[in-house]
Design a protein that fits this description.
3 copies of one chain form a homotrimer.
Chain A: E1 13-14, H1 15-22, E2 25-28, E3 33-34, E4 36-37, E5 47-50, E6 67-71, H2 75-81, E7 87-91, H3 94-105, E8 114-115, E9 120-121, E10 126-127, E11 132-133, E12 138-139, E13 144-145, E14 150-151, E15 156-157, E16 162-163, E17 168-169, E18 174-175, E19 180-181, E20 186-187, E21 192-193, E22 200-202, E23 207-209, E24 215-218, E25 223-224, E26 229-230, E27 237-240, E28 245-246, E29 251-252, E30 257-258, E31 263-264, E32 269-270, E33 275-276, E34 281-282, E35 287-288, E36 293-294, E37 298-300, E38 305-306, E39 311-312, E40 315-318, E41 323-324, H4 325-336, H5 338-361
Parallel strand pairs in A: 4-5, 5-6, 6-7, 8-11, 9-12, 10-13, 11-14, 12-15, 13-16, 14-17, 15-18, 16-19, 17-20, 18-21, 19-24, 20-25, 21-26, 24-27, 25-28, 26-29, 27-30, 28-31, 29-32, 30-33, 31-34, 32-35, 33-36, 34-37, 35-38, 36-39, 37-40
Antiparallel strand pairs in A: 1-3, 2-7, 22-23, 40-41
């Protein structure tokens, strides 16, 4: 049957091959076979593990992996400590090397090109020959699906949607009409792109909907976590920049402009018309009022709150409302000393009273 | 094919027609054609834009829209500044006028009456002749779908559900058994109505489920954002009142009673048995303990926390736990002055010590 | 048609039968018939209600239920006050008794064994004969569905998934490949189990995905609220322990280990590698940094924030960052007295100045 998961031959590679992938230097048995990744603590034969910090080398004493990636220069020490590990790879950035080796050993699931007979394809839709369209998928009219893209069961794609090449849409994703998805984009289960933004105009009778007729553009190499919702622009567009990574259950309001290589942790909420420039890092459960600009390189701690209209300069920010981390810590320390301050104040009052009495007595 | 999106003739209206719609007064070329809405900054020929605040009129100097809505009395000034715009409409409430004109120019997507052959309709279900039921929709037994209602792909409607007229259920919505949806209700993608409330009784063994056998009633003209979840009553019902608007990813617990024309921003969480009376405005990421009553007209700022059992009177509230906004600001200012207070305290102590010494010396 | 909801004969039981179920003692008419549960305030004939606290007995004066569960020893007083109620049941724990009686009177919806013709079942999948598989469900290859398990419309189950017996998967749930679900597990609409955790390694170019090749194990008797997302382990597994109950819209990061009989309220977010030991109670909208250990018996209040790496000892915790509840209250009281402290400080400064002047004058 077509469309089935491809049973790829087990990925078995030699340490030499893996080291070559990441430009690492091997000591020990370079021909030993590796077929999976693991943690130092639970690794068994056939596994490769890694140590990022030379100080953590001591933890490898009982490691039973077949290979270990360690920092440049730590190879010799590693061979002394990790006596059970037959091969050591030195790499400039062990964690990065491990991640790259992991993708070679555990390649992403692939599907043969296929359109499942239960899928419903709208008129004028243009599906690449090498795409996979799973069961109960619905593709709207005049939408385009790029080569190698995989759309899993239950996904609903609206009309006039464009999806690039080599994307993965996990089950039950919803794309509203007219949105654009770049190449190599991963949308996890339940992601919703292009729902109406939250805008109303009030009169005496109640709320009238403010137009939500813009769109959403998601650029290449973006990954979006499960159940994250990205609203369409009211007028204009909402944008998620290239290489940006969003965690689960995030809310991105209408007309936001999220730059490139931005990382945002789970459950953060972003009101309308917020700009987050390139290379920012945002914690979880952060709340943004509308019309904020976060400048490139800013870091905002989890649970922070940013007031509407604010410009957030580069640096590390914390608290509700946000302050520079150092200020936040200082104020928190002061708050912690409040009981002590009260006691001092009381004592001082007593002293002054005594002085007064002494003075009167003179 | 039936069920397809209706290709409506392009909506082209004269400025005169649009002004008549909203009772506005035209100056300039009343016969010019308008076919879409836009922002001041990006508008081109054929677009209508608006200025809400007379002070913002200066921003229209380079505006290339074909028409501009401005506040009553600002027409003359607008004609002077916005020299490229051939027609000006004066209106009492420009933003509201713009919203109403937007719905005329960009009418909501419509579907021809249709039941997609992949839809599954339960026994005894009653689907209006003019309803649209999309691909892979599942309608439970004895459920009723009103005239003109549009149910998009992947929606699951339980048994004994009632949905009114002219509703839109976006993809992958879930309605549990027995819930009731009024007329003109819009449920965005992934909305979940009627899941069990969160109630258990603990004994020595663990948690036993407290009955969740009530229901949910959503009244007319409600709009609910993507992925918002509204739990069914434990006993009795959870209610969302007429004209109320909920943003994305909100949680409404069992037995809540949300009044009419309430607005709640994204990611707010409402525990069980909370009452929010008519015309309240609630920010994003607010948290409500259970058994709270928010009185009509109260406004609660984003990220606020309301303790269980609290009665929130009309006014503006802020903080965790909530306080009147003025108090919140005052206390925050005091907290900001803590370092200064400590310094003062230290100085005072020094002064007192000096006084003591002087006194002893006499 | 098979697969339909079973129309069970109306559950009508005598007070005597219900009392026997929970070991309660009846006074009044033990033969009266009861067919549903209700609140004190809204109960009518045929209903059973309960009073947990003897002090609340006075509220039963107008109660029109046919039976009332009251605490042991309160039967006599109940008969005096609740004059309209023909039967009283005394029970050690009335709320628990009520919950158990509720499950007898309102048994969970059942489905006849059935695989809907629109369901898509992967090769090698093993579906128990007594399972129910609803419309538009997709079951992956080599997955196992246990006896009596009910999978509602639109659910997507990946490959190599194991689901135990007597589970209920509500509509539009997504289970990624390889996850394991125990027995008697309830997953509400939109739940997502097994999406990739949020882990990347940064280099000069951007972010590289850190491997997310672990899995998720959900043990027996777990109930998970609508739209909650539980990410798979990066390496190893994420675990939800037996008897644990999660509310709606919770995020559980990769490699978390949530113990047995843990209760977590809505919208709480848990970063990666957090351990929450048995019998903890966690409020709503709480945020956990990564690598935290919450020790058995700890209670964390709503909206709290727990810093990464923290060990949370048993006791009640509150605030951002968390502190023991008593400390939190004390500090909050101090903060509330800040204006007063400032005034005192000012007064004291004045007094000292006066003293100085008097002293100089001598």
């Amino acid at each position: 049957m077509t469309g089935m998961v491809m049973d790829e031959p087990k990925q078995l590679k030699t340490v030499e091959e893996l080291a070559a992938l990441i430009g690492g230097r091997v000591s020990g048995d370079a021909q030993i076979g590796i077929d999976h990744i693991a943690n130092i603590g639970t690794a068994t034969a056939g596994a490769i593990a890694f140590v990022e910090d030379p100080k953590a080398l001591e933890s490898t004493q009982d490691c039973a992996a077949s290979a270990l990636i360690v920092p440049d220069g730590a190879g010799e020490r590693a061979r002394e400590v990790a006596r059970k590990v037959p091969a050591i790879i030195e790499a400039a950035k062990p964690k990065l090397a491990f991640a790259l080796i992991a993708s070679a050993l555990h390649p992403q699931k692939r599907r043969e090109p296929f359109i499942h007979p239960t899928a419903v394809i709208g008129e004028g839709a243009n599906i690449a020959l090498t795409a996979y369209i799973g069961p109960h998928v619905s593709i709207g009219e005049h939408s385009t699906i790029g080569t190698g893209t995989r759309i899993e069961a239950g996904v609903v794609v609206g009309d006039y949607v464009t999806i690039g090449i080599d994307c993965v849409l996990h089950p039950n994703v919803t794309l509203y009409d007219g949105v654009t998805i770049g190449d190599n984009v991963v949308l996890h289960a339940g992601v919703c792109v292009g729902a109406d933004g939250f805008g109303y105009v009030r009169d005496d009778v109640g709320y009238h909907k403010f137009p939500q007729v813009g769109t959403v553009v998601i650029e290449d190499d973006v990954e979006i976590g499960a159940h994250t919702c990205i609203d369409r622009g009211s007028l204009g567009r909402t944008r998620i920049g290239r290489g940006t990574k969003l965690d689960n259950q995030i809310h991105v309001g209408h007309n936001c402009d999220i730059g490139e290589r931005v990382v945002i942790a789970a459950q953060t909420g972003i009101s309308g018309s917020v700009t987050i420039e390139d290379d920012c890092v945002i914690g979880g459960q952060v709340g943004f009022g509308d019309h904020i600009r976060v400048q490139s390189g800013a870091v905002i701690g989890s649970k922070a709150g940013v007031l509407p209209g604010k410009i957030v300069r580069p640096g590390v920010w914390w608290g509700i409302p946000i302050q520079p981390l150092a200020d936040y810590k200082r104020l928190n320390a002061h708050i912690g000393r409040l009981p002590e301050m009260r006691a001092e104040l009381k004592e001082l009052r007593k002293l002054v009273k005594e002085l007064e009495e002494k003075l009167s007595a003179k």
